[in-house]
């Protein structure tokens, strides 16, 4: 018994000694930990708490309602519609972005291509432009009353009358998805360019020595070696596509007739923008949407593990 009691304090002293010896590392980490706790951990905890209240965001009355907000969310058709719209945006834009960016990356990765850096920069510039500004500008560009897109279509004789791209439920979602793809295309392109840089030049030299042409090298060397990155890039792009709030808000505000009502916009409307804000209900919707995002993040972790195994088995 005495030997056990001696080992425990010794272990504690050893841990305390290691912490003290690395005190400067912990001191430099402290600001980051404080900010992470204040702006990430605490909002998550407070959202869980607010989701169980019937609170408008103002006033001292905060009646506790338990899981009533979650029950209402499960029976809310607009919530399910918004979630369906968000998943539709993911299902349509993610494969297109990943596929098109891979094709462009294969072209721009050629060191003998003139002005390759200029093309890379031009494709990446929209990604670093403020999304809200792009949304406002696109509203003017697609404006049926004198917008340049409609003016061009009329001059070319493609349409007889202006098209209300953002005011027609049949075209508004497709227009938003097109702008979103253009805005973030450069990010996915950078992913693929980084993946292509991991393929050693000696592999291509060996393929040429064996008599493989450009098409054979692409089919039997490049694409198989890029396969582990495909899962990661797909999941990264899907998670990023879920964060479409600012573009939808500035372009359509979820309209017309809820045709572009992404889940983030619906949460914002319920919590802050309604005539009678419902912060508690909005928090419950945010928690549920966070669980969906968490599921994609879990898939991403599995994809990263698969990619590491695939790369180590080369």
TrEMBL record:
Gene Ontology CC annotation, any one: plasma membrane
InterPro entries: ABC_transporter_permease (IPR051393), MetI-like (IPR000515), MetI-like_sf (IPR035906)
Origin: domain of life: Bacteria
TM spans (from-to): 24-45, 83-109, 121-142, 184-204, 225-245, 281-304
ABC transmembrane type-1 domain sequence ranges: 83-300
Gene3D superfamilies per record: MetI-like (1.10.3720.10)
Keyword GTP-binding: no
One Pfam family per UniProt: BPD_transp_1
GO process terms (BP): transmembrane transport
Primary location class: membrane
Keywords from the named record: Cell membrane, Membrane, Transmembrane, Transmembrane helix, Transport
Membrane topology: Multi-pass membrane protein
Cell compartments where the protein resides: Cell membrane
Similarity comment: family membership: Belongs to the binding-protein-dependent transport system permease family.
Protein name, as recorded: Sugar ABC transporter permease
């Amino acid at each position: 018994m005495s030997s056990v009691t001696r080992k425990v304090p010794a272990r504690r002293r050893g841990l305390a000694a290691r912490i003290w010896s690395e005190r400067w590392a912990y001191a430099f980490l402290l600001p980051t930990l404080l900010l992470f706790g204040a702006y990430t951990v605490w909002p998550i905890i407070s959202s869980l708490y607010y989701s169980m209240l019937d609170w408008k965001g103002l006033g001292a009355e905060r009646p506790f309602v338990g899981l009533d907000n979650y029950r209402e969310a499960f029976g809310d058709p607009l919530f399910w519609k918004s979630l369906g719209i968000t998943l539709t945006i993911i299902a349509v834009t993610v494969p297109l972005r990943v596929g098109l960016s891979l094709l462009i990356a294969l072209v721009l990765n050629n060191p003998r291509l003139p002005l390759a850096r200029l093309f890379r920069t031009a494709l990446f510039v929209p990604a670093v432009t403020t999304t809200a500004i792009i949304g406002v500008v696109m509203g003017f560009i697609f404006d049926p009353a004198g917008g340049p897109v409609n003016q061009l279509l009329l001059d070319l004789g493609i349409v007889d009358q202006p098209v209300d791209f953002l005011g027609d439920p049949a075209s508004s979602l497709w227009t938003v998805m097109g702008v979103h793809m253009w805005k973030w295309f450069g990010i996915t392109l950078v992913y693929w360019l980084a993946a292509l840089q991991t393929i050693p030049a000696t592999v291509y030299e060996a393929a040429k020595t064996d008599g493989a042409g450009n098409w054979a090298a692409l089919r039997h060397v490049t694409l198989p070696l890029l396969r582990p990155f495909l899962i990661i890039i797909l999941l990264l792009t899907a998670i990023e596509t879920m964060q479409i709030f600012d573009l939808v808000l500035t372009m359509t505000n979820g309209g017309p007739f809820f045709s572009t009502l992404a889940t983030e916009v619906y949460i914002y409307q319920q919590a802050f923008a309604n005539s009678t804000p419902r912060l508690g209900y909005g928090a419950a919707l945010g928690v549920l949407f966070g669980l969906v995002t968490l599921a994609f993040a879990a898939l991403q972790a599995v994809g990263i593990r698969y990619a590491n195994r695939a790369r180590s088995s080369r």
